[in-house]
Amino acid sequence: MKKFLSLALIVTLILSLTACVSAAKKTKIKFNKRQLKKIELVESPRHGAPMIVLREKYDDVPIFGEAVATQGQMVNFINKRNKNPKLNCTVEQLVHLYYVEGNREGIRPDIAICQAIKETGTWGYGGDVVPEQNNYCGLGTTGGGVKGAYFDTPQLGVRAHIQHLLSYTSKRPPRVEIVDPRYELIQKFKPEIFGKLTKWTELNGVWAMPGIHYGEDILNLWMQSQMPDASDASLDAANLKVMLADDKAQAYVYRGLVNMERENFSDAEKDFTSAVEVESELKEALFDLALAQENSDKPADAIKTYDKLLAIDEKFVDAWHNRGRLKLAAKDYDGAISDFESALKIETINADAYNDIAIAYFKQKKYEDAWLNMQKAAAQSSTNPVVQENHEKFAACVKIKKK
Known about the structure:
Number of domains: 2
Strand order of the largest sheet: 1-2
Distance between the termini: 41 Å
Number of strands: 2
Radius of gyration: 29 Å
Helix content: 55-70%
Strand content: under 5%
CATH architecture of the largest domain: Alpha Horseshoe
Number of helices: 18
CATH superfamily of the largest domain: Tetratricopeptide repeat domain
Shape: elongated
CATH topology of the largest domain: Serine Threonine Protein Phosphatase 5, Tetratricopeptide repeat
CATH class of the largest domain: Mainly Alpha
Low-confidence stretches: 1-5, 7-15, 17-25
Structural class: mainly alpha
Mean pLDDT: 90
């Protein structure tokens, strides 16, 4: 009986395969070449954004230390997130208070501000705490309508926040009178954490419950606060970094990013070049340099920079994609296809790569290969407007006939 079942299964498979082959033979793709000459396919956009250099890993970022972001940057960061924060002082005054109180105790003020941003929703509140409390870190709140501690002034609220951080990270008492109502409670009843948590990620599950990614959330905000913008405050901070920083490569990259934001691509290119001269294999500097060269309309230089970057890191998918785009523009179609295929080996779901491979074949009038890759691009993305537009244009020139 089993032999008959096995034989039946084999016969079924053979018939199925025969049917598929037969169906394939009955269809033929025909292209309206006259119509194809009239359409223009749009290339996918450049991949990747300029990259900042951050040497510290999240697990290593200490609570003690000096600020990395300037006061001006933190003011800009808060204003971007909430144009009307519910404060009993100006944003500038609040930031200044954090730097004064934080520096006095050795607590990193820029990251402490990011913790306050997380706790208050950038001073939009909406939870148990109200603006009148000047309570910026949820001191004494336990949920269920419990509002926690009240402080008479913003300065006392900031001081209490800094002192509470100090209670977690050091057994040294505050340098001024204790205003944190929970400082002594931590000291007396929490010996397992009093003065023993020195890293921001060690606050996970301790400061807030469950708080699984509490420290990481704060540090994500901190990273965002350091991304420069086109403001004069960012440029001033960048010039200061270049002047004073021991890590010159990092400082040059930072100023280059400011110049990129200000669309001063020539100076950005100089800064990124200086960073590479200091540290020849700094991937962030090389990638940013290539982007600056592209913006300066120097495609040949950008290709060479991508060459160096990919020699260092062959898994840098955005570099493969961007170099492929430049080769496509230079009519190096085979080189472009090779680069996009390399990107696909790293990132198999990549509608942009299939789209641009299709364009490279299309430019060579290899319409069957172009259509095949355009179909793959469309199959991978139903929301990509470039891919969908190209697929619709191409499909209008394609007829599938049965033999």
